[in-house]
Amino acid sequence: MSEHTYKFNVKMTCTGCSGAVDRVLKKTEGVSEYDISLEKQEVLVKGTIPYDDLHAKIAKTGKQIISGETVV
Fold it and tell me: How far is CA 38 from CA 9, 50, 52, 62, 72, in A?
């Protein structure tokens, strides 16, 4: 499976919010690296995980996903 880069705009209001996303991504198989920006309300993820699976993992944190796209 080839590696992709995904960008999600996620509503995060505090470090607790970004921490919840961090904890989920840290344990997710198929994620090779990620960057969470509380200031930009953005989560960049690189990995082999399918988009829909990743979207579901982030959504399980209870944070609102405003938009998401495959960048590469």
Answer: 10, 24, 22, 16, 22
Which pair of tokens denotes residue 71?
A: 């960048």
pLDDT surpasses 90 at 19: yes
DSSP code at position 49: S
- Neighbouring-strand partners of residue 37: 42
pLDDT at 27: 96
5 forms bridges with which residues in the sheet? 46
Q: How far apart are CA 59 and CA 3, in angstroms?
A: 21
The token pair at 32 is 């090779």
| Rounded CA separation 10/13 (Å) | 10
- Measured CA to CA, the distance from residue 47 to residue 11 in angstroms comes to 22
